[in-house]
Amino acid sequence: MAATLIQLVINGLLLGGIYALISIGLTLIFGVVEIINFAHGEFLMLSMYASFWLFQLCGVDPYVSLFMVIPSFFLIGWAVQRIIIQPIIHAPPLNQIFATVGMSLVLQNGALFLWKADYRTVRTAYSTFSLKTGGLMISFPRLVAFILALAIIAVLLIFLKRTYTGKAIRALAQEKRAAMLMGIDIYRMYKIAFGIGIACVGAAGAILIPIYYAFPTVGALFVLIAFVVVILGGYNSLVGALVGGLIIGLVEAFSGFFLSPHLKEAVYFVIFILILLLKPTGLFGRG
Amino acid sequence: MKSSRNPFHPRFYFPLALVVFLFVLPILPRNPFYEDLILMIFFWGTLAAAWNLVGGFAGQISLGHTAFFGIGAYTSTLLWLKFGLSPWLGMIAGAGLAILVAIGIGVPCFRLRSHFFALATIAFAEVLRYVASYWRGLTQGGVGLLIPFKPGMENFMFRGKIPYAYIALGLMLLIILVSYITRNSRFGFYLISLREDQDAAETLGVNTSRCKLIALIVSVFFTAVAGTFYAQYLLFIDPDTVFSLPLSIELALLAIIGGLGTVIGPVIGAFILIPLDVLLRGYLGAISAGLNFIVYGIVLVVAVIYFPRGVAGWLKTWYEPFLRRLPGAKQALVTEVTVPSPALTTETSDPQDPDPEDEEAKSPLFQVHSLTKYFGGLAAVKDVSFEIKKGEILGLIGPNGAGKTTIFNLITGFLSTDSGKIEFRGEEITGLKPPHKVCLNHIGRTFQLVKPFNNMTVLENVMVGAFSRVRRASEARKEATKVLDFIGLLRQRDSLASSLTIADRKRLELGKALATKPELLLLDEVVAGLNPRETEEIISIIRAISRQGITLFIIEHVMKAIMTLSHRIVVLHHGEKIAEGTPAEISRDKRVVDAYLGEEYLA
Fold first, then answer.
1. Which of B16, B272, B333, B575 has the fewest CB atoms found within 10 Å of its own CB?
2. How many angstroms separate the most distant Cα atoms in chain B?
3. Which residue of chain B is at minimal alpha-carbon distance from A30?
4. How many Å apart are CA B534 and CA B491, to the nearest integer?
5. Could you give the maximum distance between any two Cα atoms of chain A, in Å?
6. B93 Cβ partners below 8 Å, 6+ apart?
7. Strands B520-524 and B551-555, how do they pair?
8. What is the pLDDT of residues B260-284, one digit of tens each?
9. Which residue of chain B has the CA closest to A104?
10. Contact A32, A211 (CB under 8 A)
11. What are the chain A neighbours of B260 within 8 Å (beta carbons)?
12. Are A241 and A230 in contact, with CB atoms under 8 Å apart?
């Protein structure tokens, strides 16, 4: 039993790392641009397809494709902010919500149109490779995914702490007007923040493809989890998104084992409602 | 006063002609394809208008309405299949269940800010979809439920589409009627005001939580009923259709394209988009599934960026001129015309015009004892006591961050007190919450940063306040007109509040509060940011308010204003009261000069 529990903890944490990476992009966009990107999951789906096709057509290993996916998704995020979000940055929430909802509809069905509803995945030499020690089994690609996700998060946090742009973005998230008065070009920062947020979820897609399937609605599946993570972590805390991601990973592993894997969405929702009722600011949120 | 409508006026016969046209519409050409199209327009129009009550009027963006639709469809279908209960009764049961669920979900979720509310509703609908998919014993999961065709009125199943079309039309007309009544009633004003600014609405006596919940219940009722209708028409339901997220989005899309928060906008949206949808499904669906949703998505994005007001907003500009060109427009609409004659004098006769001198002996109207409020470890307000006599003007001054606005928030129910006591008219009101209760208890307030309801006219803004005392729209309009005359905004009565200058917004802020008929009115920096002439005008209005017998409690940084207006002044510093007295006493007080006024003030 002890080995099973440890195994569950490992599985949960490995999963949680990727959830954290997806959620941290969502949190950054919300914290800075103050909109919830309802199309976030669709960008995950896009990057999974991008890595899939890079592997399928050009033989690029998914982990190598990271270096192409991250910069190109940054540019996509930049463009989305410039073209779609910027015109409605001061509009009522309704316009903002439906702009990203509409985007998600287009992307999801665009994928369905182009690539059909088939499940696609990348089967590499290491796909089924596992490390076995003391009765425990650690899937190699999951371990790599976890390590990469944490590494990317670490780089992001250091970037936000150390560089001028990073500090400007954090300042903006705290107090928009003051940031503007300090000479920060807020519209540029919005674009950078949106770009980074999309680059994060793009990276998550590339990391996911060796262990999961790409299909047009895969984003909807993960974005629901990301929403719960963001609410759990406190919707404007990046560290909260990290911790929240790991917690949700653990919850999924345990509820899947002790209840039923089919019920995991119901479990998320219960958590979601409980947080809203008991602590709407989440674990790390500012009021 | 009795009044009968003139049936020959276009404002009356034109809408009537439209309704008649709708009744003829399903039977114009007899072909199943066309009948299905008309029926779908009515059906989606009903759903969109129902969504609009919550999403449009109340501004609470639900992306989970499909949940209630699905509950309606599954409840009536399961009751029919398992127990043979007539779907008509199943429809009521489904609506009831959906309403119960909506209350359970709405109460916690309405506390969330807009984006998060939308998010919570999505999550909720998705979970229901999973439940319906995996609870196979009950729902047969993803396979779906097939309803055997047994035509008959009592079974809610008919041969041909015409009976369905008329049921859908009936539902649609009913929800239009509900929307129309809502738009022109106190409830509708309340919904729109809370959409525009929740805090301001609360301050004017609007029970925002209750209003949102009622709007949700009505909306959910129609949505669930439409769910049953859908099941009875198609005779097949499955989780991925009746609980699908795109269905929720489509409802919103229709309302947005048609005109959000308008009475007939969502129906117009259905008339435009549903035929388009059928065409798209026909042509594009043949090429590939999902292509129609791509078009939808693009329309949605373009619409919210470039045409957020929808077709109804645009129609409105030509509807009136069009009516005027129809025969009969010259006649009076209402035969017995009743012109409201607002009192036109600033000095409205006040029977109990009090003289502050006389009231000295009486017990104070308002008292605060040892009021204390901590933010974390910091005492924002510490052990503050004072009283206000009836008819008095009490000033509250102090440096920024001294705790002035915090005191206002403690009194008006925006913050809860840590310790101390607040008494009004001899009753303890400490901790009276939420703010609308304070308003109904005759304490009004204005906000330092004015909070106009931007997308309502000036008159409508003030009517929201007036509705705290009267029920009928006509009375509220009369009251509001009086108030507008009093504060000098009558000329702008039909302008949108967003178009006002800052000085007029400050007047409007006063007007809204006055319309709630307060006995005690709290004014938070009403002259800040105004030029000297505008300041003079506001000061004279405040004097006139005081002459009407309303007791005033004023925060102000403009010394000229506070010193000339106040009978007495309380000075706050770091949350503590450091002085209290007449303006003359205060301006000589050493501590006040040091802490706030500065040496120059004496010189």
1. B16
2. 95
3. B115
4. 17
5. 59
6. B75, B76, B79, B85
7. parallel
8. 999 999 999 999 999 988 887 777 7
9. B297
10. no
11. 94
12. yes
